[in-house]
Amino acid sequence: MNGKHLLRMSDLSNADILEILALADKMKFNRQHGLSHRLLEGKTLGMIFTKASTRTRVSFETGMFQLGGHAINLTQADAQFGRGEPIEDTANVLSRYVDGIMIRTFAQQDADDFAKYGSVPVINGLTDFAHPCQILADLMTIREHLSALAGLTVCWIGDGNNVCNSLITGALTCGMYVRAACPEGYDPHPEVLAKASKNPAFALTRDPREAAEGANVVFTDVFTSMGQEAETKKRLADFEGFQVNVKLLSLCAENVMVQHCLPAHRGEEISAEAFSLHAAEIYDEAENRLHAQKAVMALLMGGAD
Ligand code: CP
Ligand code: NVA
């Protein structure tokens, strides 16, 4: 990996992504065969959460443990940054104790500032702008199930949110075709769109059926992300017709995969039937957070074996 941090998907080149996925595959295989990779022996990850989490919290903490290291969970409720201590001081001081920082928060600028003021690698565990660790796990899962990335078509149905932003950037970097279907007013971030629009492999549409036609992988996520709860009712109305269901999936390639970062709202962005038909792929995707993040941490914080 070339960069020092993983703050956004555009930090990674195609070669970086392939390097991470190769190590993640190896770590997954070895773990399934009882072999360990204690690449971060004696090292500590500080984990900052200002939003809820199940997968990110457990996969990072377990990942550090499996790599021979340790993780500390820091939340708003019990750390001084929750009482207004500036990022400059928090990042500077944490860097003197820990070997890496994972941050899940609202503003991308806050994650960027941790990297600016700290001196250890910073990993974005979700901001309003990006969720790069999620997309690494998703790309790993697609490769496992469909044996390729480049040349496949992925489509996004729903909100042009953090996961969508990272999917567009990551999938295009890997040579995939990307179609996003978002209702008006819910487009991906302008910075992501500006770059993607220059790539003929990218298309944005208002019609989920147009996006789904012949797609190899269908992605969706909640209509209301963390921090947007006050808009829930309006969003439910605005996303009418943007549900991933069996009818929509019938337009896709024969062996279509479905990916959902979870948590899911069955009956909203995905029907219960579509979810259960594709649950194995979705749970593999969740599992792969562990393996992909172990690879990222090993490469950024320690070096791979
Ligand atoms: N997909 C994901 O990031 O899940 P959590 O919010 O549970 O961490
Ligand atoms: N888009 C969702 C993803 C949760 C993992 C959110 O930001 O809440």
Can you give a write-up of this model?
The protein has 305 residues and is of the alpha/beta class. It folds into 2 domains: 9-131 and 288-300, Rossmann fold (3-Layer(aba) Sandwich), CATH 3.40.50.1370; 134-286, Aspartate/ornithine carbamoyltransferase (Rossmann fold). The protein contains 12 helices and 9 strands. The protein has helices spanning 14-32, 55-66, 87-94, 108-117, 132-146, 162-173, 190-196, 208-212, 232-238, 246-249, 272-277, 279-301; strands at residues 44-49, 70-75, 100-104, 122-124, 153-157, 177-181, 202-205, 217-220, 257-260. The strands form 2 sheets. Strands 7-6-5-8-9 form a 5-stranded parallel β-sheet. A 4-stranded parallel β-sheet has the order 2-1-3-4, with helices on both faces. Strand 5 (153-157), helix 6 (162-173) and strand 6 (177-181) form a beta-alpha-beta unit. Helix 1 crosses helix 5, helix 3 packs across helix 4 and helix 6 packs parallel to helix 7 (190-196). The longest helix has 23 residues, at 279-301. The two termini are 14 Å apart. The relative contact order is 0.16.
Task: Briefly say what this structure is.
The chain is an alpha/beta fold. About 40% of the residues lie in helices and about 15% in strands. The chain folds into two domains: about 10-130 and about 290-300, Rossmann fold; about 135-285, Rossmann fold (3-Layer(aba) Sandwich), CATH 3.40.50.1370.
Comma- or semicolon-separated keywords:
binds phosphoric acid mono(formamide)ester, 305 residues, binds norvaline, alpha/beta, Rossmann fold, four-stranded parallel beta sheet, 9 strands
